[in-house]
């Protein structure tokens, strides 16, 4: 608002786009929600001021000769410090009625869009295109998972089976480690027995390595 007010002396300001850094990028869409998807930029920022007429750009460039532009003035003060914190806190308080109205409107648009997609999918189901290909929609071989009690039970059963398979694999891994440990213990025992037998044969001078 302050930038629009400052540059309005040059011409009609069409929009002000504030970004975290300079450079080309996609233009931000106008916030459709008052309560959601708000990202506050911190630190230094870059503003792109768009005028309705090209002549206003030249007038804006000439402003540098008039001295610095003051954003906060007596007639248009910018809140800072504790006043800004109080205003931010008051703005953060959500009106339940406005929030409910926005959520209801969003869900109505979503339901309408889903109904249109379902109708379009049902209309295109089984109909070949110009090249003879048949498009498989959600109504086709793998329909969307319904949020019903039966579907929830199937999901729980799959999770139970997956957990059982994991436990079985862990048991097999533990059994394999135990078998390997026993085999190593047997090899060590046989090695000690061979050492004792060789020592005994040396004592009896009957040791023949070849």
UniProtKB/TrEMBL annotation:
GO cellular component, one term: CURI complex
Coiled coil: 177-204
Membrane-crossing residue ranges in chain numbering: none
Domain named Ribosomal RNA-processing protein 7 C-terminal: residues: 91-210
UniProt xrefs under InterPro entries: Nucleotide-bd_a/b_plait_sf, RRP7, RRP7_C, Rrp7A_RRM
Keyword tags: Coiled coil
Gene Ontology process terms (BP): ribosomal small subunit assembly; rRNA processing
Domain of life: Eukaryota
Signal peptide: none
Assigned protein family: Belongs to the RRP7 family.
Protein name per the record: RRP7A protein
Originating species: Vidua macroura (Pin-tailed whydah)
